[in-house]
Write a structure and sequence with these properties.
Blueprint: H1 12-15, E1 23-28, E2 32-33, E3 42-43, E4 57-58, H2 71-87, H3 98-109, E5 120-121, E6 123-129, E7 144-149, E8 163-168, E9 195-196, E10 200-205, H4 213-226, H5 231-236, E11 242-244, E12 267-273, E13 314-319
Antiparallel strand pairs: 1-10, 1-11, 2-9, 3-6, 3-9, 4-5, 6-7, 7-8, 11-12, 12-13
Length: 323
């Protein structure tokens, strides 16, 4: 199904022509619950992975993740709650059976899986085919982008998952891996729900704090004078899962993201988001999702992937444009 970002409530580029030098395309992925295959683009779906290529495991130091569970336990929890939501009429209290409640309580009371000395298999996060994705980012000879992560907290990665990126040529995978290994434990919020994607290219404008001082002052004066839609939330950078575009530094001051090897300024590759729209007026909510209830099902339209970064933030992956 198509997802369409509403026209911005204000044509900020027309108001400030100098913004043309600070615009960049981004591809909103619009993940929604589905059953993608390895031959399709997805968030949290299976990867087209060569059987002869070792599946990646994480060997880095990890912090104990809050309430780690096995992937099977988390998937069963979601299945039980999803079935209960499906049978519950809108607006009524969740209808869950005694047997389902007992199974959930038993899982919650179970001892967490042991992690001592265990290598942790990485889990699929994103797979994007060039044919599906406007603004595909990658080497010229690659038509497939794959992103995996270790589904546990890492102190040296800002207490986020350790990320691994692969570019490959799909036609070269003649003998795909049928069943990748599962991690011994996951943080539940780092296990993406399989989602189909509905890529849509939009135009973004640079984060306000990184614009030239004069232009930044003009925009701030306009915001104060109109009291209308804020540049930060409604007019510059799209929320949600996306490929490319600009990073939003509204939670921290901007700081350089330079390549460790060559020193070049890196550019944004991917955003893995806790929510598809939030903040401001919610003007980024796709037209097709208007009128959909936010909390009358297990999978809310604005949180389809079950991923949560920190307290509802986003994880950014940057890449070096030189190599």
């Amino acid at each position: 199904m198509v997802r369409t970002t509403p026209t911005r409530p204000v044509d900020v580029a027309a108001l400030f022509p100098a913004l043309a030098a600070h615009a960049r395309p981004a591809t909103r992925l619009h993940p929604r619950a589905g059953a993608p295959t390895a031959g399709q683009s997805s968030v949290g779906g299976p990867l087209l992975w060569p059987a002869a290529e070792p599946w990646p495991f994480c060997d880095e130091s990890r912090e104990d993740t809050f309430d780690p569970v096995t992937p099977e336990t988390e998937r069963r929890r979601r299945a039980i709650l999803g079935a209960a939501w499906a049978r519950t009429p809108r607006g009524e209290r969740l209808r869950i059976t005694e047997a389902e409640r007992a199974e959930l309580d038993e899982a919650e009371a179970a001892d967490p899986p042991e992690l001592d000395g265990e290598r942790v298999a990485m889990v699929p996060v994103v797979q994007l085919y060039r044919r599906d994705t406007p603004g595909f980012i990658g080497p010229a000879d690659a038509d497939l982008l794959q992103v995996l992560w270790c589904p546990l907290d890492h102190p040296d990665h800002e207490y986020c998952p350790h990320v691994l990126v692969r570019w490959r040529t799909a036609a070269a995978v003649t003998a795909p891996l049928a069943a990748p290994p599962e991690p011994v434990a996951v943080g539940a919020t780092y296990l993406p729900e399989p989602c189909a994607v509905h890529p849509e290219e939009v135009v973004e404008h640079q984060y306000l704090g990184l614009l030239p001082e004069e232009l930044r002052g003009e925009i701030r004066a306009w915001e104060e004078g109109t009291g209308g839609f804020p540049y930060q939330y409604d007019l510059s950078i799209a929320p949600g899962w996306k490929l490319g575009g600009f990073a939003s530094w509204h939670l921290t001051d901007p700081y350089p993201m330079d390549c460790d090897d060559c020193g070049a300024p890196m550019e944004l590759l991917l955003v893995a988001a806790s929510s598809e729209w939030d903040g401001g007026t919610g003007s980024w909510r796709p037209v097709e999702d208007e009128g959909e209830p936010e909390h009358d099902s297990l999978v809310a339209p604005h949180e389809p992937t079950f991923v949560q970064i920190g307290r509802g933030y986003s994880l950014w992956v940057f890449y070096c444009p030189r190599s």
